[in-house]
Design goal:
alpha/beta, TIM Barrel, Lyase, Ornithine Decarboxylase, Chain A, domain 1, six-stranded mixed beta sheet, five-stranded parallel beta sheet, 11 helices, 22 strands, about 25% strand, elongated, binds pyridoxal-5'-phosphate
Length: about 400
């Protein structure tokens, strides 16, 4: 991208579509998909991802009311579920926009219903059940079942969904996830005994989708796998073949030769053992590139690995190009993605730096424009270069 000559994240929407199809193939025909696009689509851009996955999903899930409103503002009309707890102040907007909140207490549901009635609406909500995550949700017991029955009679709400979330479905041993499913299904039976049937039941995250745990219900919630990453190393790759989606590209700004003993970057943690050629890359932890890759990570230049020397700074870092013949200023640099025969996966960076792959993509910051590719064409871009501060009272 000509206008992005410092750094940009490339987002491969063909890979996104491939990943959706690969998941779909591993699911029972009747099971629908909810696309999880929280945290700005795991750092990939929630809106373009939502557009790309539209043919495959019945709806979307986000973490906050604001994230749901962003999708609505971009013309997305399918159901949206907020996975976290929404503050009461956001209820009017949720009701007006048909965005489903997650609820599990009497107070939440009574307040929401009362407001919906005032607005002349009957609004859908999803119920969270805590089967082992201890994050949010009602306990799967008789008292909760009684509460749900009672709440089903509130005039302003529709009990549309019932879900739980796996804490350990990405571990080699799937016993814990299966235990959560048992508690969830037990709760479903308690509801049925009371004549309550909630139409949209959903439990599986990406790990569940890949390993077919909880996929026999009405829907699943696909997150990390949309973005081409497996939830963990312990999850089998064979059932669903995923393609990486995000690339991170930059350009060399400066190349020089340093003498033996020359120290590189803050703290002088690297000293050249011999005469070396080093390149400066204009990216740093201020862009979300992990500082824990200091002295551990590498980039690709001319299809070859260039190891990071010394500490990653806020906006720059140095790499060794001694062995990369012809390396020159303005050469493209691959921080994530493929360059000829070499490829750097987000998972490689997580492993090298002791980080977490979900976190690395979420943390790619506002200084990094996103460029969207579909069928070999750039179909859109997103950047925050026009970010503005709204002044209420000038500092005099
Ligand atoms: C984030 C999240 C998901 C998606 O999880 P992945 O591991 O990314 O697939 C699903 N459900 C809930 C409740 C979540 O918070």
């Amino acid at each position: 991208m000509e206008q992005y000559r410092r750094v940009y994240a490339s987002i491969d929407l063909d890979a996104v579509k491939h990943n959706m199809e690969a998941m779909q193939k591993n699911l029972p025909k009747e099971t629908g998909m909810i696309g999880v696009v929280k945290a700005d689509g795991y750092g990939h851009g929630s809106v373009p991802i939502a557009y790309a996955i539209a043919p495959y999903v019945s709806g979307y899930a986000v973490a906050t009311a604001e994230e749901g409103l962003i999708l609505r503002r971009h013309g997305i009309t399918k159901p949206i579920l907020v996975l976290g707890v929404s503050p009461k102040k956001s209820y009017p907007e949720l009701i007006a926009q048909g965005i489903r909140p997650t609820m599990f207490t009497r107070e939440q549901m009574e307040a929401f219903s009362a407001l919906a009635c005032q607005m002349g609406e009957k609004s859908p909500i999803h119920l969270a059940v805590d089967t082992g995550m201890s994050r949010i949700g009602m306990m799967p017991d008789e008292a909760s079942a009684d509460l749900v029955k009672e709440m089903g009679e509130l005039p302003g709400i529709i009990l549309e969904g019932l879900f739980t979330h796996f804490a350990r479905a990405d571990e080699e041993d799937i016993l814990d996830a299966k235990g959560q499913m048992e508690r969830y299904l037990h709760f479903v039976r308690l509801l049925e005994e009371r004549g309550v049937n909630i139409p949209i039941k959903h439990c599986a995250n990406s790990a569940g989708i890949i390993r077919s745990i909880g996929t026999g219900l009405d829907m699943v919630r696909a997150g990390i796998s949309i973005y081409g990453m497996y939830p963990s190393d312990e999850v089998e790759k064979e059932p669903v073949s995923l393609q990486p989606v995000m690339g991170l590209k930059s350009f060399i700004t400066y190349i020089k030769t340093i003498e033996p003993g020359t120290k590189v970057s803050y703290g002088g943690t690297f000293a050249a053992p011999k005469k070396m050629r080093i390149a400066t890359i204009p990216v740093g932890y201020g862009d979300g590139y992990p500082r824990n890759l200091s002295g551990k990570g590498w980039v690709l230049i001319r299809g070859k690995k260039a190891p990071i020397l010394g500490r990653v700074c806020m906006d720059q870092f140095m790499v060794d190009v001694t062995e990369i013949e012809g390396a020159a200023e303005e050469d493209p640099v691959t921080l994530i993605g493929r360059d000829r025969d070499e490829e750097i996966l987000v998972e490689d960076l997580a492993k090298a730096g002791g980080g977490f792959h979900y976190e690395i993509v979420c943390d790619i910051g506002k200084r990094v424009p996103r460029v969207y590719f579909l069928e070999g064409r750039v179909i859109g871009t997103k950047d925050y270069f026009q970010d503005t501060y709204q002044v209420f009272f000038p500092i005099s």
